[in-house]
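Service request form, structural biology core

Requester: graduate student, group of Dr. S.
Request type: structure prediction, single chain
Budget code: on file
Notes: please return the result as structure tokens.

Sequence provided:
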Amino acid sequence: MCAKKVRVGDKVPEDVLARRATTSTPRTEVADDGLMDDEIALRIMRGKMTWREWVLYDFLRYWYGLAAMTLVAFLTTYVAWRYHVRDVLGLAALALGAFALIVLEFLLYRTIWPQGAFTKGWPAGTRLRAGIRRLRWRL
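Core staff response, request fulfilled:
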């Protein structure tokens, strides 16, 4: 039995293209034409990352999320325990403070990783390296 072969000039149906995108055949290049699914592009990019890029773009991002959630949980619990917050007004103020902290953490996250999974650089790291270089010359 042989598979159906497609000539170069033939038009490929859309359902065949959709099946090809989800098969286990590994793709090795990310096309910047907007036709590739983000999951496939991210898988290709992660496969080609060096360990340093992986630490900056994925590992630190996960630890930042874990640390942010932990900070909100423990800080809210500590303030409630330290000041014996039991009334409705105090709990509302505590919830408002926790929400404000979540918003600040999100803004800091967007400052460090501005474009989500497809971040082209780390602006905070670039500024930090430039500041360290300036300090070296002054010392």
